[in-house]
Amino acid sequence: MNDPVTAQRQFGTGPLSRIAAIVYRLIVVELLLLACVLPGLVPAVLLDRDPSNIPLYAACAIPLGPALSAALYAIAQHRPDLTDLNPAVDFWRGYRANLGGILRIWLPLLVASTIVAVNLAWFDAAGVPAWWGALLVLVAVAATAWGGTALVITSLFAFRARDVARLAAYFLTRTPGTSLGVLALAVVAAGITAYTSEAVLALAGSVLALLLLRTGRPMTTAIEKEFTQ
Length: 229
Hints:
The protein is mainly alpha-helical. Helix content is 82%, strand content 0%. It has one domain (4-227). Helix 2 (15-46) runs antiparallel to helix 4 (64-76) and helix 7 (130-156) crosses helix 8.
C-alpha cells in the first residue's frame, strides 16, 4: 500500500492530469490575453479593410506585443502537475517583467511593417520599378522572422534590447527551422484574419503562442547553453 507521501507525489502527474493541466493553462492564458488586447481588438474589428487604414491597424496592434509576450512567458512556465497551476500569476509576472523590453522591440517593428505595408498597398500609384516591390517583400519576410524570434527571446530572457536584436538576427540563419516556423505561423495568422476576422485570430492566441514556443525551442535551448551560463 502506498504511503501518503507517495500518493501525493503520484496525484496530478498522470497522462490525463498532464493534459488537463496544459488545457487549463491555455484557457486561462487565452482569457487574459483577450482581456489585454481588447482595447485594440474592438476598433480593429470595426475598421474597414482598406489600405488607408493600415496605420490604424498598426496602432490597434500595440497592445498585442506585451500580451503575446506575457502569454509566451506563462506557457513556458508550465509544469505537468495538476497540483501546481498558477497560470494567471505567471501571465501577470511576465507582463510586468517584459513590458518595457517588448515595447522597445514591438513598436519599431510595427512602424517598419506599416511603412512596408503602405508602400506595397500603393505600389502601382508610386510608379517605382518592379524590383523595388520584390525588395519590399523580402524586407517584410525578414522583418517577420526577426520579429518573431525577438519576441520569443524577450519573453523568456532578460537581455538588453540591442542584445535581443543581435541574437534574433544571429539565429535567423543559425536555426533556420525556427525562422521558417515563425513565417509559417505568420502565414496561418494572416490567413485566419483574411478569411475570418481579427477576433477569430485572437481566440486562437494561446495556441499560436504555444506553437511559437515549440518552434523556437532549438533557439532557446542554444541561448540557454551558450549565452546564459
